[in-house]
């Protein structure tokens, strides 16, 4: 009991020390110029809350363990996956799915796809990449620039953006080849920021902080989604004899990202069972053992970086075409952190876990946009809670990629 | 005398001022078990790390007589030594892929062959027959070594969940799945109980007999060394102090001194 008290007091003290510079002082604009004013009541509140919360945590018995999933869940997983995919396909046609819902679902799907892409690098190959957003940015800018400079359509640019991002992944992969663990995280974080700074400052090419606007929207086999289709194109609504509606494009974009994301997922599920995929996981487990078995870690790491980057590039192109406008602001470190959080929270390697984590970390905050700045607070709180409950992520169970008698 | 498989000549590996391996020369034969023994810190593991390319020695040569020609191991990367020269190894403190299944550990060991068969996984991605056949062959090879190491019923378990003795055997099975010409075992009997240790002896003798490959064995347990090795190389402070058949080495005064410590100056007289 006294230990709990001491511990809580200490936590309160730390909170007070942290809150003092952050909450405790305020710049006041007065007639005589700027001056500082104290807000010590807030500091007291912060310290008190932390003290009380800590004491509560110490006194309340530890949370009961999360209900363990029944043993048969491993076999249920493909079924759960199919059910989710079916739901995703039907979503736009469900009665409650208005334009707003589909739009938010599209955003969540972007993050699911990014999570699945990063999962190859972090979850499978075990390379802690904190600069993943750089490849997302390269994909987005590749599409925007290719389409604006050469008038190429989205469908031509998409593979090109993927190739460019993948090459970029290989390029950025080189500096981190010799590094391990935490050092990879630091270097990739730096590289990610460098890419953003370049985008911000290379005025002539990228438009600097103003970004690129008026990015071409995609068409469906030449059918435009504009109210007034450009010369020589027919509009989607006209072709199918529908009344024009902005919803068509929203739904089209939704299906586009759904297909892209599912393709990422299928690719990952497949490659996990191939030599490359197994080598990624082996590398995550023990690099030295890999070397002793004749596996060249360089090519294994680069392939993970390149392929992960390729999917980020696809997602980036989609992002650019959906927004119609991109600027460096969309590609900050925060984005990398969110994507990484999705992968870690999902359970490092679990495809379905990533879907759940993306729903939780991107979907929920979108829903509670009204809460404004408390969104990030809730985001952080949710992450802490989940990590307390399930330190290995939501779904951390791993199925072997092959079984001795018969395929898994 | 069998033709030599591995020729180590004047090998020296220094760490700063410490000579972990000091001007060491010896040969290991094909179809033979060559034991490397010596007190703690004698440089045995360092020697293995030089042979398998994890360390680059400052001096000396390590040649492997491969059907494709003589290979200078000191010039190859560690993974190339495993892949091209066919040198496999186990580690003093076991290095498995703990969160992968036992079978997966053995399949990963066949990475090179599978990559070639799958055209760098492309054939596998497209689901071509060619890859499925190669994978089936890999599973069969894995099954063979699972049977020989008595691990078949653990095939689908996580490697990290196996008991210690099983993990040691799995590491040997994994090394054998690379189809090596030279197998280097770093204290495979460490931590085994007498029954497991006897089984290990039998396994190693079988490998020697059936595969006709060379085995290099670091071992502390003298009963293992005396029981199964054809030749013994004794190291102390990085230097070779004796070499010969187990019987020869056992009686060698230098070896006895190294193991039992220096007697008093007066006694040596
Ligand atoms: N990477 C390294 N850096 C510095 N010194 C090292 C390194 N590796 C080994 N040594 C030193 O080299 C010497 C030989 O070590 P080694 O591990 O080869 O001994 P060993 O014969 O395998 O001993 P043991 O029976 O305890 O396994 C020791 O003094 C060790 O401290
Ligand atoms: Mg050793």
Description:
- The complex is a heterodimer of chains A (408) and B (269).
- Chain A is mostly helical.
- Chain A has helices at residues 2-23, 40-59, 73-90, 99-124, 133-150, 154-176, 181-201, 203-206, 236-239, 246-271, 275-285, 287-292, 297-323, 333-346, 351-367, 374-389, and strands at 25-30, 33-38, 212-213, 223-224, 234-235, 325-326.
- The radius of gyration of chain A is 24 Å and the shape is globular.
- Chain B folds into 2 domains: 1-86 and 180-269, Rossmann fold (3-Layer(aba) Sandwich); 95-178, no CATH class.
- The relative contact order of chain B is 0.17.
- Chain B has 269 residues and is an alpha/beta fold.
- Chain B starts with a strand and ends with a helix.
- Chain B is 41% helix and 25% strand.
- The interface between A and B is large, with 30 and 46 residues.
- The structure holds adenosine-5'-triphosphate and magnesium ion.
- Magnesium ion is lined by residues 44-45, 92 of chain B.
């Amino acid at each position: 009991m006294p230990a709990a008290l001491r511990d809580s007091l200490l936590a309160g003290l730390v909170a007070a020390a942290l809150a003092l510079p952050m909450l405790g002082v305020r710049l006041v604009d007065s007639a005589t110029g700027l001056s500082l004013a104290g807000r010590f009541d807030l500091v007291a509140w912060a310290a008190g809350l932390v003290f009380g919360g800590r004491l509560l945590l110490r006194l309340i018995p530890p949370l009961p363990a999360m209900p363990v999933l029944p043993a048969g869940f491993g076999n249920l997983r493909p079924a759960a996956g199919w059910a989710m995919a079916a739901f995703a396909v039907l979503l736009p046609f469900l009665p409650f799915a208005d334009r707003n819902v589909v739009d938010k679902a599209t955003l969540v799907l972007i993050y699911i796809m990014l999570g699945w892409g990063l999962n190859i690098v972090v979850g499978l190959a075990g390379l802690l990449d904190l600069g993943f957003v750089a490849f997302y940015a390269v994909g987005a800018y590749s599409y925007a620039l290719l389409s604006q400079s050469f008038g190429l359509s989205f469908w031509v640019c998409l593979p090109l953006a993927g190739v460019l991002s993948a090459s970029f992944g290989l390029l950025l992969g080189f500096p981190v080849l010799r590094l391990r663990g935490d050092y990879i995280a630091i270097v990739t974080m730096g590289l990610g920021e460098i890419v953003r700074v370049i985008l911000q400052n290379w005025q002539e090419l990228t438009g600097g902080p103003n970004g690129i606007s008026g990015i071409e929207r995609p068409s469906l086999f030449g059918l435009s989604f504009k109210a007034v289709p450009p010369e020589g194109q027919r509009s989607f609504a006209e072709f199918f004899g529908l009344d024009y509606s902005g919803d068509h494009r929203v739904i089209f974009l939704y299906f586009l990202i759904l297909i892209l994301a599912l393709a990422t997922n299928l690719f990952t599920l497949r490659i996990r069972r191939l030599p490359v995929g197994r080598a990624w996981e082996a590398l995550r487990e023990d690099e030295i053992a890999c070397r002793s078995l004749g596996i060249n870690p360089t090519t294994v790491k680069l392939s993970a970086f390149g392929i992960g980057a390729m999917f980020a590039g696809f997602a980036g192109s989609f992002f650019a075409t959906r927004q119609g406008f991109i600027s460096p602001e969309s590609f900050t470190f925060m984005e990398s952190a969110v994507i990484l959080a999705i992968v870690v929270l999902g359970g490092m390697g679990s495809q379905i876990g990533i879907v759940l984590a993306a729903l939780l970390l991107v979907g929920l905050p979108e829903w509670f946009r009204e809460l404004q700045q408390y969104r990030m607070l809730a985001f952080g709180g949710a992450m802490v809670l989940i990590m307390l409950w399930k330190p290995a992520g939501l779904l951390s169970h791993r199925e072997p990629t092959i079984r001795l008698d018969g395929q898994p | 005398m069998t033709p030599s498989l591995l020729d180590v000549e004047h090998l020296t590996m220094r760490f700063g001022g410490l000579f972990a391996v000091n001007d060491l020369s010896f040969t290991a034969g094909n179809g033979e078990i060559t034991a490397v023994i010596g007190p703690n810190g004698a440089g045995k593991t360092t020697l293995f790390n030089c042979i398998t390319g994890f360390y680059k020695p400052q001096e000396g040569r390590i040649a492997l007589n491969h059907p494709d020609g003589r290979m200078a191991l000191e010039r190859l990367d560690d993974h190339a030594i495993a892949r091209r020269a066919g040198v496999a190894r186990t580690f003093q403190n076991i290095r498995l892929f703990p969160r992968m299944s036992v079978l997966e550990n053995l399949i990963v060991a066949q990475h090179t062959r599978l990559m070639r068969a799958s055209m760098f996984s492309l054939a596998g991605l497209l689901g071509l027959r060619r890859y499925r056949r190669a994978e089936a062959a890999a599973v069969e090879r894995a099954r063979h070594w699972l049977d020989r190491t008595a691990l078949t019923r653990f095939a689908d378990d996580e490697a990290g969940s196996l008991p210690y003795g099983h993990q040691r055997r799995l590491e040997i099975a994994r090394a054998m799945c690379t189809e090596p010409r030279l197998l280097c075992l770093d204290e495979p009997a460490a931590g085994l109980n007498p029954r497991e240790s006897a089984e290990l002896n039998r396994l190693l003798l079988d490998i020697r007999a059936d595969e006709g490959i060379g085995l290099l064995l670091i071992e502390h347990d003298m009963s293992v060394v005396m029981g199964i090795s054809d030749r013994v190389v004794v190291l102390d402070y990085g230097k070779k102090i004796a070499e010969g058949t187990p019987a020869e080495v056992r009686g060698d005064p230098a070896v006895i001194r190294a193991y039992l410590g220096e007697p008093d100056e007066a006694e040596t007289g």
